[in-house]
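Form 7-S
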Amino acid sequence: MRTGVAVTLIVVGLLFIGIAETGEAAWPDDMWVSGTVVDDNGEPFAGVNITAENTTTGLRYYATTESNGTYNISLPVGSYNISAVRTNYSANTTYQMLNVSENLTGLDFTLSELLGTVTGFVTNGTVPIADATVYLVNAEYNYSANTTIPLGQYEIIDIQPGSYVARAEKEGYLTNYSDIPIVVVRGQTTEVDFNLTAEPATIYGKVMFGTRGLSGVQVQVVSNDFSITAVTDSVGNYTITDIPVGAYTVIFSKEDFISQEFQVTLGATVPTNLDVSLEKEAGTSGGFIPGFDLPHSLMVVGLMLALITLVFALFIRLKVEKRPDLLEREEIEEEERE
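Output:
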């Protein structure tokens, strides 16, 4: 008889455990908890698993949301943790240590799809770059975010899982692509850093002496860690390219002329124009023709004398061709004097 009673109690206990785990039956003294589950857009979310775990006994009770997103669970009086679970989604809340001593309604959940995140830093190798834009692109999706100060950090959230091509770009810098495709995994954060190189700057202009371009002038562009030199052409023009963006001292110098220096900041977007006029040093031999030094002045005078001589010779020849008797008369007079 005692054996039969014991067996009966064991069977009843097992049935009680089974009912608690499946949530398919309710005892007369049980309470009901209910609520609604929606997605990010506020639409009913069907098929979400609702779990209520008794914090004292560890027993779990389950329900699944209906097509309208609602659920109901019958629970014995007690303290419970109630959560909503769906693969690839996360709930906005859980109800912890909830005292169930009466019927409870309004235990609602909002489920958001578990997506990926990509974050990182954009620098020039040492200094953070603010306002750069990082892009993630594949055949279906296109995401982007800007870097912020002071660290040049960016973060792209809510990315659909998949493989993406990543790039970082900013005006004045060369675009940098990731070496390999970026794989985004649900619920995980991927770190991708970029190093941007500034586009090279250009400076150009003309060096004058008086009213003419001055050739052979040395033009130096100098900073603490960079230097480049060019020489003006035959009409005084110069162009220097492939200069890193930044602040520089530009020096113009030529023998017998007063050197000049200028402080400039070179950018990559627009070439910088710098025209200069040099003056002769005191004590150097200047030309007697304005705008020309002595050697060039003498050259001009020599050229003018040559032209005058040529014109005079042509004049004499034309005169003789028209009046040959003049030449004959001069010859007769010379013979008579002899």
